[in-house]
Amino acid sequence: MVAADDAGRTSDIAGKLGVEPGMVVQELGWDEDVDEAVRDAAEERAGDELLDEDANEVVDLVLMWWREGDGDLVDALINAIGPLADNGVIWVLTPKTGRPGHVEPSEIAEAAPTAGLSQTSNVTVSEGWAGSRLVAPKAAKSRR
Fold it and tell me: What is the pTM of this model?
């Protein structure tokens, strides 16, 4: 019975993140602390493996695992925008409050516009991780 509940919750993760079948999803910032259930859910829904940091394809969605001490978030976001499709989404996934590597929400809120992105929503993606959804503003898209 528990396994069925877990499976439902896992599929909800991909839905929360907006992963759809056929999407190209890139993962940045993988480390041993990432939530494998989030990765598995994204791969299962998209129907393919997550691309790594070295991929040279246009991507629909980026899962960026980000922790305090990982460097400059603005630079990382600018790098993530490069291969992003016009209607693409970047999810900045950070450890929740009280966990090692926690990032203050204000840091993401300040970095996003500097990188040319808008923060549209926040979700809990797992027991240990929260996500902030970032997109290119509509005005910027129309100028591309």
Answer: 0.88
| Rounded CA separation 100/132 (Å) | 18
Residue 138, both tokens: 């509509």
Structural contact between residues 83 and 55, judged by C-beta atoms closer than 8 angstroms: yes
Q: Which two tokens stand for residue 1?
A: 């019975």
Coil, helix or strand at residue 29: coil
Core vs surface per residue 61-96: b (16+ CB within 10 A) or e:
bbbbbbbeebeebbebbeebbebbeeebbbbbbbbe
Residue type, 26: Q
* DSSP assigned state of 84: E
Q: Virtual CA dihedral for 67, 69, 73, 78, nearest 10 degrees?
A: -100
Give per-residue pLDDT as tens, 1-55. 334 444 444 448 999 999 999 999 999 999 999 999 999 999 999 999 999 999 9
Distance in angstroms (rounded) separating the CA atoms of residues 136 and 138? 6
